[in-house]
Amino acid sequence: MQLSITSTVELLNGVTMPRLGLGVWRTQEGEETENAVSAALKAGYRSIDTASLYKNEQDVGRAVRASGIPRDQVFITTKVWNDDQGYDSTLKAFQSSLDRLGMDYVDMYLVHWPVKGKYIDTYRALEELYDQGRIRAIGVSNFTIGHLEDLMAHCRIKPMVNQVEFHPMLTQKKLLAFCRKEGIQLESWRPLMQGNLDLPLLAELSAKYGKTPAQVVVRWHLQLGVVTIPKSVREERIRENADVFDFELEPEDMNRIDALNRDHRFGADPDNFDF
């Protein structure tokens, strides 16, 4: 699979989205976020994933403007938090996110979690904003197959992306297959398992390919066709996470990484969360 840092996937509506991006969850507001985003853009990243919950949208916006890269060349994702879900409140929350980013549109807006009794109305607001041309692509985050089926029974516009926890210890094969069948792009958060990469197989493959365990895992995501947004605040690590385009994992090694699955979540269960 010939890939590069500029490689993209095409979403259901024809919009292209970079396969690799930078996540800024738990990146401190202010200088830390600005520096991380600046380092990523300098290294060739063209996708930044934030959320209202992260409290660093304004820093993302500042770093993008300071980079001198034209706005239409950077793919910006943000999300509506659970407290703001519902039709009218989502419309207001979106405007607040835009104001913090200092932008007049975002490339993608996601429903952050499937809040029971609210996510359908929340998504209806996303459809309205999409119709207005203020969002180039809409989608969801942390949705299971059941949530997606319920949403698709009620929505006009099929979600284009489902961003979920996904990594070698949580391969979500059924969800991946469902999303592929429906044309919904799967995107991985926490792809590097919170740094829990000290697995014998990853050490073996690291030696085999002359890459770090993190690079092996990022490459595994990309070869699966899963968009991935590894988070780091260190410039050398940000560059390292993107240095994955000069090798290819052999099919048997892809399968061996798949076999690490333990259905283990480092984050919350979308079917049982209370925030």
From TrEMBL:
It comes from the Bacteria. Gene3D superfamilies: NADP-dependent oxidoreductase domain. Keywords: NADP, Oxidoreductase. Residues 19-261 form the NADP-dependent oxidoreductase domain. InterPro entries: AKR, AKR5G, Aldo/ket_reductase_CS, NAD(P)_OxRdtase_dom_sf, NADP_OxRdtase_dom. The keyword Repeat does not apply. PANTHER family: 2,5-DIKETO-D-GLUCONIC ACID REDUCTASE, NADP-DEPENDENT OXIDOREDUCTASE DOMAIN-CONTAINING PROTEIN. Belongs to the aldo/keto reductase family. This is Glyoxal reductase. It comes from Cohnella kolymensis.
